[in-house]
Structures are given as C-alpha cells and as structure tokens.
Structure to design on (332 residues):
C-alpha cells in the first residue's frame, strides 16, 4: 500500500489496551483515569482480523503496544497468533518492562513472548535512579523493570531497545548511567523528544529537551559522536556512535527533525478500534462499528486502503497541536 505522498505502508502498531500500571508524567498523568469501557475494546479476534486483512494488503511488521500491553491477559497467546499470520515477518512489543519477569505457567512473561515469536522488544527506561524513576512514572517499580530486562535477555531477546523520553532538567543526569547500563546489557539506547500527546502542562516548552541538545551534552562526556546515516532500525531514529566504544545511540527527534515523517510506514490501531494514519494528527477512522456490523473482508480491506489514502504528509506537532487523545489511548 502506498499513500498519496509515496509512503509505503507496511507497519501496524496495535494497541491492546489503554490501561497501564504506571502513570508516566508525559503520557498518563495520575489525575486522568478514564479507561475505555470493556465493551468498547476490540477482542483479540477482532484485532487479528484487522491484522490478517492488513497483511493481505502489505502489512509485514507488527508491534504490540498500549497502554501497557502486558496488563491485558492473554497477550502472549495473541502474539503467537499474529506471528503465524501469512505475510507477517516481524513482530515486536513495546513495554514498560515491569511485568516481564512475572511467572505464568512456569515461565516468565518475557520467555512466553519469545516463545510466541516476538523478536523485537522496546522497553521504556527513563532513569536508573529509583527515586527519579518513581517521580517520572509515579510508581516505585524500577527494580521490577531491571528484573524484567534480565528476564528478556535470559529469554533470548537480542538488541533490546531502551527508550528514554527527554525531559529538561531531568534527563541530563541520566545520560551517562543510561549509556553505561545499555552497553552492559548490549541494548540500543534511544532518546525520544517529548511530543504533545498528553496533557498540556507537562508538554510545556520548559520541559522540552531537543535531541540535538541531548547529543551535545552526551558529547561532553564521550567526545564527538559519529553519525551513522545508514544504520536504521524499524523507525525514524537517527543513530550515532560513541567512537571509543562503538556504542550506538538513537535519537528520535519527532519535533526538531524536519525530515522525521519522510520514511513513515506506519498505521496505528487503537484498542477501541480506530485506525489512525498518523500519531500526530486528529485523523482516525472507526473500524469497530463495521467489524461488529459484520462487514466482509473486502469491505474491511477497502476501509484500510481509504485510511492509507488519507495519511497526511507529516504530523501536526509543530502547528500548536493539542491532542484529542492521550498517548496511552493511541498506542505509542
Ligand atoms: N507502556 C509501554 C511503554 O511504556 O513502553 C508501551 C506504550 S508507551 C505509550 C510507548 C512509548 O511512548 C514509550 O516509549 C513512551 O516513553 C513513549 N511516550 C509516551 N508519551 C510520550 C510523549 N508525550 N512524548 C514522547 N514519547 C512518549
Ligand atoms: Fe504506561 Fe508506557 Fe504510558 Fe508510561 S509510557 S504511562 S508505562 S503506557
């Protein structure tokens, strides 16, 4: 599938829940607790149907996300069903890591996900300092995340990606501990610019730290980083390398990188059944109503094509964008 601006669409992010066991300041502030009612959330069967039809249209990569996907029971079995869909070549998950070490049926959640065919894992990690992690996420769960990272490594996951959202006057002191930790765990560390996808107060200019500023601060410790324009993972991160150690660091500059949207190949399915062609746009199209009204696969395929045709050239984050949904209700 190709949109009007030449983006080739091959990637679907599926949010299985808008619920979470953390309350990150930039995503899900404590005071907002409006979950989707259960009946509005797509069943796994409904999601699999969208994925199967999507795969027939060229979707090859899937990432399961949320909210916190591991708070929804049965997510590993859901992943196992995605992995065997014809056409799906890559399956990943984004998680806060807090539940990865939890055992179920004698296996950790991480091992169950690996066994299900998940091979790429993004774990959010904003700080290695317990108090600071607690402040950012409103939960004292850093030890669980660290256990979870080890469980993922033990399960066989390679090249874990550790994602840190850049917050001014906060992330600066995390750079070097995070770099050292990522090197020790052979993980790819990525810094993400704060996006206006939550409540406005947190997304204030005063909290914004650009990827460029972050890189310059890191360089004060490591010496100049070397750009790696040809190294890409599945997303828009730009990678740089620490010359002395070879460690790669990713920078996701959704706001300051004006080329950010050029290589976008994604659609997002929200847990309440809306298909969104862009994270930073109000556009969303309801699939739940037609799915529940008994639409045919051909009709569903046409709806998906219509959404692709309306994918915007780029996000609206620079246009004083005010979100109509919180990040947690979209799926990061
Ligand atoms: N709960 C999982 C997690 O934390 O990784 C998956 C969902 S979370 C919404 C996905 C990603 O979105 C995380 O890496 C998180 O840091 C990022 N995110 C959330 N709110 C953000 C914001 N306002 N700006 C930039 N990234 C954000
Ligand atoms: Fe939950 Fe992830 Fe959002 Fe944090 S970033 S509140 S862990 S969904």
């Amino acid at each position: 599938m190709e949109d009007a601006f030449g983006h080739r669409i091959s990637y679907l992010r599926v949010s299985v829940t808008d619920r979470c066991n953390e309350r990150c300041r930039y995503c899900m502030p404590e005071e907002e607790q409006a979950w989707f009612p259960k009946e509005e959330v797509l069943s796994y069967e409904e999601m699999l149907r969208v994925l199967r039809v999507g795969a027939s249209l060229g979707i090859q990569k899937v990432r399961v996300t949320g909210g916190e996907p591991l708070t929804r029971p049965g997510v590993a079995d859901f992943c196992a069903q995605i992995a065997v869909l014809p056409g799906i070549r890559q399956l990943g998950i984004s998680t806060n890591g807090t539940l990865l070490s939890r055992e179920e049926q004698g296996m950790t959640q991480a091992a169950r996900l690996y066994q299900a065919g998940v091979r790429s894992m993004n774990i959010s990690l904003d700080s290695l300092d317990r108090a600071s992690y607690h402040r950012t996420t409103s939960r004292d769960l850093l030890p669980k995340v660290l256990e979870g990272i080890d469980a993922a490594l033990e399960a066989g996951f390679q090249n874990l990606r550790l994602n840190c959202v850049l917050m001014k006057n906060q992330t600066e002191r995390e750079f070097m501990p995070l770099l050292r930790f990522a090197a020790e765990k052979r993980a790819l560390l990525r810094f993400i610019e704060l996006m206006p996808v939550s409540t406005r107060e947190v997304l204030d200019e005063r909290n914004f730290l650009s990827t460029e500023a972050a890189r310059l601060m890191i360089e004060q410790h490591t010496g100049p980083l070397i750009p790696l324009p040809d190294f890409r993972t599945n997303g828009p991160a730009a990678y740089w390398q620490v010359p002395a150690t070879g460690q790669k660091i990713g920078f996701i500059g959704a706001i300051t990188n004006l080329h950010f949207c050029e290589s976008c190949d994604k659609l997002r399915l929200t847990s309440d059944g809306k298909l969104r062609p862009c994270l930073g746009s109000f556009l969303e199209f309801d699939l739940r109503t037609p799915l529940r009204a008994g639409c045919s696969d051909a009709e569903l395929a046409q709806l998906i094509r219509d959404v692709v045709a309306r994918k915007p050239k780029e996000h609206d984050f620079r246009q004083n964008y005010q979100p109509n949904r919180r990040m947690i209700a979209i799926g990061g």
Remarks:
- The chain has one domain: 11-329.
